[in-house]
Amino acid sequence: MRDKKVDLINKPPHYTFGKIEVIDVIDDWNLGFYEAQVLKYLARYKYKGDPIGDLKKAKWYLDRLINKLDNKKTNDYCR
Asked: Model pTM?
């Protein structure tokens, strides 16, 4: 019996857990860049080598999104 070759480009193990791939959710929900990054890091943190690092990266992107929306709101009020 031969071992299956792992496709690290198209189907890495941390991408293909569960029934739905994160990329399909991102496409279906039409998420923006920061939203997609938060979802991606949050969904996959348990399946990669550095869970705390991935959660911190998700937080970093979420903070960027919050700051972006705060700045937009502030700029909208200044008009």
From this structure: 0.73
